[in-house]
Amino acid sequence: MDDPVLLTGASGRVAEAILADLGDEYDWRLLDRYPPEVDVPGETVVADVTDREAVREAVEGVGAVIHLAGDPRPEAPWESVLTNNIDGTQVVFEAAVDAGVERVAFASSNHAVGAFETDERTPDLYRAHDDFRLDGTELPRPGNLYGVSKAAGETLGRYYHDAHGLSVVCVRIGNLTKGHPPEDYERGQAMWLSYRDCAHLFERCLEAEYGYEVVYGISDNDRKYYSIERARDVLGYDPRDNSADHAE
Amino acid sequence: MDDPVLLTGASGRVAEAILADLGDEYDWRLLDRYPPEVDVPGETVVADVTDREAVREAVEGVGAVIHLAGDPRPEAPWESVLTNNIDGTQVVFEAAVDAGVERVAFASSNHAVGAFETDERTPDLYRAHDDFRLDGTELPRPGNLYGVSKAAGETLGRYYHDAHGLSVVCVRIGNLTKGHPPEDYERGQAMWLSYRDCAHLFERCLEAEYGYEVVYGISDNDRKYYSIERARDVLGYDPRDNSADHAE
Considering the domain B5-246, what is its CATH architecture? Predict the structure, then answer.
């Protein structure tokens, strides 16, 4: 990717992980509703992702978009996810297509499938011996309205791919924490995504060839119940971390 | 179903088919943004489906909701489907759960999967010899933003079922026409839904036992590429029409 890359939600935690490792690797355009509070490795755009005109300008001349912006709270109310996550994601896809952008990597979430974690399946589901796997071909089962909004974003991506040829990858991000996996939290250990694996995964989203994909974004945890095979096969994702290596 | 049934979008075409056969079978509460222009077999509520307070009142005391309201145009702009179809459907599900309603039948659409009709597959897909079938377990591939909004409504239904125990059936309605199938339109003949099969299908949605289902709403057409097996098995759907019986 030689063209600039637009990163939305640039002040968020996923962006922090990406920029920590890839800050010097790309020509970044960093969009967030708030101005950055730290030094950032690129041009900044202060705008809300639902501001159609601002997003239109921000995608001008970029080769790819990593779309992270949105209300990140699992407990976010409907009105917020409807606007910030569903409408905001449509704004980004539409602007990307209109500007001739080649690809969009969309930050989806484990919450799009949170309701697979039924009382019958848990806590076994979170343990290494359990062989239940979600692989991205299953219909979403959101655990909250935030998860509904992320599933809707994935479907928007499917539409913009099919109708307009945009390459779209939806990354169902697990539990991203810096340094080590969550402690005393089996679920978080099962879906841990280390900072460096996160950056590497989004680098692959910028470099690999694909049409439309839904992949899980977790490290290579022993405990996993999300398959990372599709991310390995299509994107060349090769994670280095495993929450079991940080056993308490 | 002895309790009243709330029908939203009561002045639309699907409602017309339902009420033609089932007008006397249920105690109807008929909600539409416009007052009825004809005699109707029930109490009427004039309100927009996005009006949270009005919908809250409308669901009070009903046993089931048939939710048809929304912008029905395949070419509807994003702003309209975001509000009328996505937000409107959340309003209905949320109000239904809060009022202790037992079940909601949601009018989804063939447009939620329209992009399966690729250049490679069509027109063979529309012909009786072709054995390609969609069965409702596939991830949506909307052909337009209207279809995106219907897929989002299905995912909302999944959430309200999983989180709140609401029985939800999403009916991907085909091409509903009165009297006979569309002429000179293979696609429409493949997904034809006759008026009486439509009424019968929604009657089954009110009477059968289910948790969460996605079914296709078409007659038993020779040309079909949507499976009706799930509707038969779970709902007891037993269609009487077939577009082939109306061969031109």
Answer: 3-Layer(aba) Sandwich (3.40)
CA angle B194, B200, B201 (to 5 degrees): 85
The token pair at B118 is 């690729």
> What are the angstrom distances between the C-alpha of A166 and each of A155, A159, B142, B179?
13, 9, 15, 41
- Cβ neighbour number for residue B227 with a 10 Å cutoff: 16
**Mean pLDDT across A131-135:** 97
pLDDT surpassing 90 at residue B49: yes
Q: Rounded mean pLDDT of A105-114? A: 98
Among B90, B115, B162, whose Cβ lies nearest the Cβ of A141?
B162
pLDDT in tens, A30-68: 999 999 988 999 999 999 999 999 999 999 999 999 999
Q: What span, in angstroms and rounded, lies between the C-alpha atoms of A140 and A113?
A: 5
Interface of A to B at Cβ within 8 Å reads: 78, 82, 86-87, 90, 94, 115, 137, 139-145, 147-148, 151-152, 155-156, 158-159, 162-163, 214
C-alpha B237/C-alpha A108 separation (Å) is 36
* Cα–Cα distance, A148 to A86 (Å, whole number): 9
The pLDDT of residue B71 is above 90 = yes
Domain residue spans in chain B?
Answer: 5-246
pLDDT category at B247 given cuts 50, 70, 90 is confident
Return d(Cα B41, Cα A214) in angstroms, integer. Answer: 47
Evaluate the omega torsion of the peptide bond into residue B36 and state whether it is cis, within 30 degrees of 0: no
Q: Residue B107's closest CA among B224, B216, B24, B33?
A: B216
> Distance of alpha carbon B243 from its chain centroid, rounded?
19
Partners of B163 on chain A (C-beta within 8 Å) are 115, 143-144
**Is the ipTM above a cut-off of 0.90?**
yes
Quick: pLDDT tens for B13-40. 999 999 999 999 999 999 999 999 889 9
Task: Enter the tokens of residue B141.
Answer: 């591939």
Q: Is A146 a catalytic residue?
A: yes
Token pair for A219: 């490290």
In order of A55, A150, A156, B63, B143, the CA distances from B88 in angstroms are 26, 18, 18, 19, 21
Query: Is residue B29 within 8 Å of B234, Cβ to Cβ?
Result: no
pLDDT at B248: 59
DSSP SS3 for B101: coil
In total, chain A counts a number of residues equal to 248
Distances (CA, A) of B19 to A10, A96, A145, B25, B203: 52, 44, 33, 9, 10
| H runs (alpha helix) in chain B | 13-22, 52-59, 78-80, 88-98, 145-164, 186-190, 195-207, 229-230
What tokens does A217 get? 């974004």
pLDDT of residue A248: 59
Question: pLDDT at residue B158 above 70?
Answer: yes
Spatial neighbors of B184 by CB under 8 A, at least 6 apart, are B248
